[in-house]
């Protein structure tokens, strides 16, 4: 195993920041709550800096295992567009964040719910209850707004925002991101991934093809835990794709997830969403020209994007593990980091 961590996954090159924000226009913001038994937060992904209700973008979602409480997926599946930023948070905060998204959309478009249709908030969740006191209901509308207003093309990773209290492979998990560049014909496209990693059994952990979790499991002095986590996987690209094609991209996140050792356990909510920033869909039709012009890559050309999705998803999960700090939270529960265990393993091997 290489001493360089985290290893680069696959042969495709990463973008300049190796994050979802390498896709032009995409930004990410966090609000982190970190005090005592409150270890949680909100992460927001903005596909573009404009008004998403007015200028929607094509999107599609796939559910690998549906043990989850997300909001907004039904309409995304039906209409194939996003009309709010994407929010990530803890399970009990979904309602508060959805309300905050709705209020923000109404502030920009006061006729929503009156002379305009209602808006579709989009909130994904994972259960951070091992480290965070879910029953405190600590996430409020202001925290969503803070994350939204601080969205940037510099993506902070690890135990931040929605990832603050998350666990992954019985270690500290959280937010991870990565990107890959592909060339199709004469055009270069970027695929970016961002994950909220909160799943897995340590014994199953695979790092760049090496089943390292089998060794690390013997170093953990605790009883085995059942699989009861989740992962949210977001994919962005600037390739021109429609919702049907984006659904196919979203499905390929499962390849990257499986490579890390996940079996999509019974209690795991494994959900992926993909969107394209190449074109927008106006909320209102052009009465002078009602037929929309929409460009799409040919299906036969999608394989490089599929590779990029799988590689960037796997990389993002590893980045979440390698960038997270140790966290102590509710009732003294704590999670160590992958870096700590790897350092101990190196010491043992050289003893």
From TrEMBL:
Pfam families from the UniProt entry: Peptidase_S58
InterPro entries on file: ArgJ-like_dom_sf, Peptidase_S58_DmpA
Family the UniProt entry places it in: Belongs to the peptidase S58 family.
Classification via PANTHER family: BLR5678 PROTEIN, D-AMINOPEPTIDASE
Protein name: P1 family peptidase
Protein species of origin: Herbaspirillum rhizosphaerae
């Amino acid at each position: 195993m290489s001493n360089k961590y985290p290893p680069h996954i696959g042969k495709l090159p990463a973008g300049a920041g190796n994050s979802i924000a390498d896709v032009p226009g995409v930004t990410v913001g966090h609000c982190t709550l970190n005090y005592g038994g409150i270890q949680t937060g909100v992460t927001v992904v903005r596909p573009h800096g404009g008004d998403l209700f007015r200028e929607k973008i094509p999107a599609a979602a796939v559910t690998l295992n549906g043990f989850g409480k997300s909001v907004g997926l039904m309409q995304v599946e039906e209409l194939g567009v996003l009309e709010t930023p994407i929010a990530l948070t803890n399970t009990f905060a979904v309602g508060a964040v959805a309300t905050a998204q709705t209020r923000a959309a109404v502030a920009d478009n006061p006729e929503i719910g009156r002379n305009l249709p209602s808006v579709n908030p989009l909130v994904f969740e994972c259960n951070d209850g091992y480290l965070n006191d879910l029953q405190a209901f600590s996430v409020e509308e202001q925290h969503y707004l803070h994350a939204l207003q601080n969205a940037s093309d510099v993506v902070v990773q690890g135990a931040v925002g929605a990832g603050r209290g998350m666990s992954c492979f019985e270690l500290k998990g959280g937010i991870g991101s990565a990107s890959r560049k592909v060339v199709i014909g004469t055009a270069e496209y970027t695929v970016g991934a961002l994950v909220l990693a909160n799943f897995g059994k340590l014994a199953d952990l695979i790092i760049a093809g090496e089943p390292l979790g089998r060794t690390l499991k013997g170093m953990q002095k605790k009883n085995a835990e059942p699989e009861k986590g989740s992962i949210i996987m977001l994919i962005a690209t600037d390739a021109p794709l429609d919702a049907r094609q984006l659904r196919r991209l979203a499905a390929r996140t499962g390849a990257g997830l499986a490579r890390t050792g996940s079996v999509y356990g019974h209690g795991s909510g494994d959900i992926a969403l993909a969107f394209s920033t190449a074109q927008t869909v106006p909320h209102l039709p052009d009465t002078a020209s009602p037929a929309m012009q929409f460009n799409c890559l040919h299906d036969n050309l999608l394989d490089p994007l599929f590779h990029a999705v799988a590689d960037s998803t796997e990389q993002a999960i590893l980045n979440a593990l390698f960038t997270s700090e140790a966290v102590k939270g509710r009732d003294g529960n704590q999670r160590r980091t992958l870096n700590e265990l790897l350092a101990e393993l190196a010491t043992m091997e050289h003893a």
